[in-house]
Amino acid sequence: MKNKYLMNCFLRIFLLIGLSLGTVNFAHSQNATIEISKNKVVVGGKTYLLHVVKEKQTLFSISKAYGVALNDLMKVNGKSQATVSINEVLRIPFVEGQKAISPIIVKKEDGRYIYHVVKEADTVYSLSKKYSVSMASIEKENPGSNQSLPLNSVVKIPKNQQQKEVKELSVPKHDKKYYYYVIKAGDTQYSIANEFMMKQKKLRKLNPKLKNKILQPGDWVRIPRYLVPLEYFEIKETPKDTIKEELVVLDTIQQVDEVVAEVAKKKVSVGLFLPLYLEANDTINQIVTYKDTIEIVTERESRVIYRKSREFIRFYQGVLLAVDSLQKEGLSVDLHVFDTERNPEKLQRTLSQIQFIDFDYWIGPVYPRTFAVAADFARTKKIPIISPLSAKNPQIDSNPFVIQLNTSLNSICRQISNYVSEDFEYKNIVVVHPERYKHLNEAKLIKDIEHQLFEKGLYWQTDEVSYKKISFDEYGRYGLEATMCDSCENIVILPSNDQPLVENIITNLNVLSQRYAIRLVGFSKWQRYTSLEADYYYNLNFSLFSPYFVDYKEEKVNKFVNEFRNRFMSEPSDFSFRAYDICRFFSLAASKFGTDFPEKMNEMEVELLQSAYHFERMSAFGGLENRGTHLINYSRDFKIRHKEMKLKEEEKEQELDLLQKSFEY
C-alpha cells in the first residue's frame, strides 16, 4: 500500500510537469485583448475608469488602449515600476467625451530611421553600439536623450548608409511554431541566441544558412515561438465604442480599495523547483535481464526511492496537502512542479521553456547553484522567489525579489544577545569560547552581547551583574567551574557550532549542573548532535532560537499528521511541515495583495504548523529575510516550551551601528 502511494506521488509529479509545459505552449496561441472599462468612479473630484487587469495585459498596452501616457498611469496608481498583476484594479484618468482607441503601434523603421522602444538598462551608449551609429547622431535626433531615456519611450535611430542600402526582403509571417526575427545592424549569432535564451548550436540548426553566411541587416532567422517574449508581437486590440455612462461617486480613496477587494485573486500560480531526480528514480526501479542477448527491462514489484530525493518527496507531499486545504477554502492553486536535480544547466533549459507562465511566486530551488540561476531569472521577470532551506543566499543583498525563510546566523545572534540583555540582573553571564574564535561567524554573538552590556550602559546601571569570558581550550572544566556563581543563576553562552567542542563543553556543564544553577544558551543545530543525551539539555535549562518548531500537543499539528498518514501512508518529516506552511502562507498573501504581497506579508495572520514569519528587507535594493523565530526552552521539569519572537523596532535601529563595528574583531 505504501509503495502504491509513493508511485502515485511520482505519477502526480510527471502529470504536473506535463501540465506546466502544456501551459507554456498554449500561452502563445492567443493575443491579449483589452476591453475598455465602462465603470467610472469619482475620487477627490476627479473622474477615473476602473480597469481590471487580465492575463497577458501589461501597463504599457493598457496605457495605449486608453490613450493615456504611461507615466501618468503609473503616477495615478502610485507605481514606481511599470508592472501589474492579474485582477489588479487600475484607475484610468477619464476626460469627458473620451473614446476608446486602438493602441498605437510603433513603427519599426522607415527610410530614414529605426524606431527603438526603450527597455530597462538601455542607454544612448548601448543603443549606439547595438545599431552601429554614433552617440552624437542619436542625441541630435532625440533632444534630451543625453540626460535620460524614459522607459517605453521611442527613440529615433538614424540609419547609416549601409542600413539605407539594404533592400527589403520578403519576411515570412509569424506562425504557430516560429517567430521570424529580422536582423538589425550589430546583431551577431551570439547576441541573438543570448536575447532569446537559446544555444547558438540550436540557432544554427534551425537556420542552416547561418553556417556559411555572415548576418546582414534585413536578413531573417527562425526562432521557436515559445522562446519569444510577448512584447515582440504586435498588440492587436479591437476598437471599442464610446464609454457608457455608469457613474459611481466615492467619497474617499479607501472606497476604491473596497472595489479592489471584490476582485481579489481566486487563483494563484506557483512554481515549485525541487531536486526530485525523476530519471534516477526510474532507473533504480528497473530490473534489466538478458535472454539470448536480448535486453529485457521490467519494473520492481516494490518501488524504492532514490536516497537524494527522499526528503524532497516529503516536501512535495507537504505542498500537496496545502494545495488541498486552500482549495477547500476557495483558493485554487495552479501548481507547476519542476525537477531541478542539482543541475544548473538543466534548470536553465527549463526556465527558457516556462518564461511565459504568469507566476505569482516560486518555491526553490534548494541548492545554492541552482537557486542563483533561478534568482537571476526571477529578477528579470519580477517573480518573488523563496529560498526555503538555506540561511546563506548571496543574492539577498542585491535581488529585491529573493525571500529567505531560514533566519541567518547574524539574526539569530541578535536574538540571543537581546534575550540575554533583557534578563541580566542578578545573573552571572559566562561566555565560553574556543582558543581561536575571532574568525568564526559565531563570534558576532560575543560582539553583540558586549555591545548590549557595555556600549549601551546596561553593565554600569547595576552592581548585580557579572560578565566573564573564558577559553575552554586553555582552562578546561576546572577553569569553567571557577567562573560559576553558587548564589545566582549562571547564564552560559557558547558561540560555536563545532560539534566536538560543543559536545565536550555540554558534557562538562552537565556535571557542573548538579552543583550550580545553569541556563545554557546556544543554537538549534545542537539538537541534531546525536551523541549527547537528551537529559543534558533539560538539566542545563537549554534555550535556543529557531524559525521552526512543531508542537505535537496542538490540534492543528495532529490533524496534519493524520491527513499525511492517510494520504501517503508514511510519517511527515520536518520538510513536510515547512512546505505546508510555505505554500499556505504565500498563496494566501499573493491572493490577498497581488504583486504587492512581499511588502505586506507582515500584515498576514495565517495559522502555521511550524514556522514563525516576520520579514525585514535587507537593504533598499536587497531581498527579504525572515526574522521571526521561536524561543525554545528545555526546562528542568522535562518539558519543552516555546514562544514566538519578533524583532523589535529598537533592535532594527541598532543594526546599522553594529554593522559598522562588525569588523573590529
Q: How would you describe what is shown here?
A:
By secondary structure, this protein is of the alpha/beta class. The protein has 22 helices and 24 strands. Strands 12-9-13-14-15-22-21 form a 7-stranded mixed β-sheet, sandwiched between helices. It has a 7-stranded mixed β-sheet with strand order 17-16-18-19-20-23-24, with helices on both faces. It is globular. Residues 1-31, 99-106, 164-169, 235-263 and 649-665 have low confidence and may be disordered.
Summed up:
The protein has 665 residues and is of the alpha/beta class. It has 4 domains: 1-9 and 265-406 and 548-627, Rossmann fold; 40-103 and 238-263, LysM domain (Membrane-bound Lytic Murein Transglycosylase D, Chain A); 113-232, Roll (Membrane-bound Lytic Murein Transglycosylase D, Chain A); 410-546 and 652-661, 3-Layer(aba) Sandwich (Rossmann fold). Keywords: Signal.
- Give the overall silhouette: globular
Structural class determined from secondary elements: alpha/beta
Classified by CATH, the class of the largest domain is Alpha Beta
Which consecutive residue ranges, at least 5 long each, have pLDDT under 50?
A: 1-31, 99-106, 164-169, 235-263, 649-665
And the CATH topology of the largest domain? Rossmann fold
Task: Indicate the CATH architecture of the largest domain.
Answer: 3-Layer(aba) Sandwich
**Distance N to C terminus:** 58 Å
